Amino acid sequence: MKNDIKLFIIRGIPGSGKSTTALRMLNENIVDIHVETDMYFTDEDGNYHYDYKR
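^ that's the sequence the OP posted. Answer follows.
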């Protein structure tokens, strides 16, 4: 059987439930990986540093 690779991109305004939906999909084994843009701007100590140039 062929393995199909799927990518889900969830967009929306702040507070609309994007993270909640993504975590639900992860917990229900609909997806294997959950990555948020905010993770890209968080350092190893958990501090958030947004850089518009990145």
